[in-house]
Design goal:
The chain is of the alpha+beta class. The chain has four helices and six strands, in the order E-E-H-E-H-H-E-E-H-E. Strands 4-5-3-6 form a four-stranded antiparallel β-sheet, covered by helices on one side. GO terms for molecular function: RNA binding.
Length: about 150
């Protein structure tokens, strides 16, 4: 059983743990999440993954440190190997942000969207320099509020 402890001093009977008792009646945990579709393939010399992550991870670290949000770059071209097969997720490159603090989440979104707009502008310029029609990308995001009981 979850949150139950077998107590040798009580003849092996199960008792509620102190942590479980303290969580009873606790409010659900809220977690704000958003998923940004990157829309730029990672298979060219533009190096989209590096531009999002930043030198030594500075772009993502600065958002995390300023907001407390978690950022995860996933999908084809992310370099993140998932699961037992240690392979990139077979889906388009995307950036997920999650945060249990609404103000931190909103701040993380603002910072991330500014970064993505800058990267998209750089990509347009990169395309022009190669004689490619720039796609003029717009931010695409799916937002979700998750709520769950404390464990």
């Amino acid at each position: 059983m979850a949150n139950r402890v077998v107590s040798p001093s009580r003849g092996g009977k199960q008792t509620d743990s102190a942590a479980a008792r303290s969580r009873r009646g606790a409010e659900p945990i809220r977690k704000w999440t958003v998923r940004y579709e990157i829309q730029i393939p990672a298979n060219n010399d533009f190096q989209i993954t590096r531009r999002i992550i930043g030198v030594r991870g500075n772009n993502m670290k600065s958002v995390n440190q300023a907001t407390g949000a978690k950022l995860r770059l996933r999908g084809r071209g992310s370099g993140y190997l998932e699961g037992l097969g240690k392979e990139e997720a077979n889906e388009p490159l995307h950036l997920c942000i999650s945060c249990t603090d609404e103000a931190g989440y909103r701040n993380a979104r603002q910072r991330t969207e500014l970064l993505l707009k800058t990267v998209y502008d750089e990509f347009d310029q990169w395309c022009l320099e190669r004689g490619i029609k720039p796609p003029r990308l717009a931010i695409k995001a799916k937002e979700l509020l998750c709520m769950h009981s404390p464990v």
